[in-house]
Amino acid sequence: MNKIHIDIVSDIACPWCAIGYARLELAMEQLAPEYEFSIEWHAFELNPDHSGEGEAILPALARKYGKSEEEARATQNQMMIIAKGLGLNFEKLQERLTCNTFDAHRLVKWAGEQGQQTGMKQALFAAYFGRAEKVSDHEVLLKYVESLGLDAAKAKDVLESDQYAAEVREDEARYQQAGVTGVPAYIINGKYLISGAQEPETLVQALREIGDESNQKTQ
Fold this sequence. Notes:
four-stranded mixed beta sheet; alpha+beta; Glutaredoxin
């Protein structure tokens, strides 16, 4: 079967990244008879300098993007409708606080070595957008390690050290240098860039075109 590898650049604090992956899953399901997919997640931080307890998301977004809180709420409302249609839990999207995701990205790297990179990413999306949990808090992170059946003691050792910090920073530097300025971003077969949370139909067409072109080159 023909193979397609997708590198996904995303942040756990990005709602469109969760929506984008749910849409990508639908596209991959449709193409499953034709292609075998492999996924690798890469780190991007929307708020790399964030520290402290966090700020209510609506005023934070309003200030960041030069909008009113009402405009920010309307955008979030629309995302909640889209997410519900995809089966995603975004119930607390507007109740969350801003937070730093660096340690969560380190944990996703570690989970990848246990075969649970996507599982960890999805669990943390649900924690942040569905339950407004603080995904910079180590206890919160360890709770989702356990929910995936992974070794919480080993994960705790990772979080209390600087393990995977270099890998996360390398990810961020590599994709920024490659021109990725927003997420989600998908790099297909190490060559083709698809930006944004595209609709499943758009992704199906793009992936099929890329897959066909790649296969022709290998024949």
